[in-house]
Design goal:
The chain is 15% helix and 33% strand. It has 317 residues and is of the alpha+beta class.
Length: 317
Amino acid sequence: MSNPFVDQRRLVEGTATVALEAGVVLVTGPDRFDVLNATLSQDLRGLSVGDSRDALELDGQGRIQHSIHVLESTDGTLLIVPGASGADTAAWLDARIFMEDVQATDVSSQFSVWGGAVAFGDLAWIDPWPDVAPGGITYGDANIPAWAWVETLLPAGGKPNVDVVDADLVDPLRVVAGRPSMAEVDDRSLPHELDWLRTAVHLSKGCYPGQETVSKIHNIGHPPRRLVRLHLDGSDSVFVEASDPVWAGGDVVGTVTTAGYHFEDGPVALAVIKRNVDVTASLTVVHDDHPLTATQQVLVPPSAGATAAERLRPSRP
């Protein structure tokens, strides 16, 4: 029987992999960068073969719909869409093509998608997290541990020449790195709340769906919620799960989005909580009526956004 802590360490070392569920779409045609740039949150102009970008599909109110990993290949631009259908993504993009010379094709059946700390082939999306991408920003000063994540596309039926381990083992690694995913997203989620402006949003590129909301919150508003990393009391061998409520001062202030047991840090979780919760407040997560004390580590501060308002604020002695 495999040891999950050993397997987790092997993932970090690049000697194990996980199989990923993701749609894959190939976008071709000379106008594809114009269409993608007008559709997604990231600046995709000037991509060269082998380049990777982190991007988001937003709705008109700036709410997150999908995370999209963009990889430029010799055949065109590949979109890896975690947890989504390639057919749906291709149809969504097709609906945004008018007179442009662009084709979006679901190629999910042609590939298997593998995750790990290293590339297992030549066709590989390299996660830019936690570096702040050009045009991006992070509002906080949280200590982000080293994070290496690569998604390799192999021909359908192929697998890397390393052991395959349980995909759930990735979650605690991602929690410790403060790396958001669609697990953190609900029908209200804004990229500012999850520190996703760090890698997936270009603040000064042209218009795209949701751009007005993104810009407004960044310049003069605050997102209503914020992402925190929780270190949990594991003395009773009770572990929290996604959707468990987070309490502070007798009130529910948020929800656990991802939880797991890290091979070095122990029980950890990401949670989305109300923006105005005191950063020094003691938090409690309740799982099956069992309360667990949680130490809050700020990833997105309450002051996130309102950068223009802050610049215009009169200086005080």
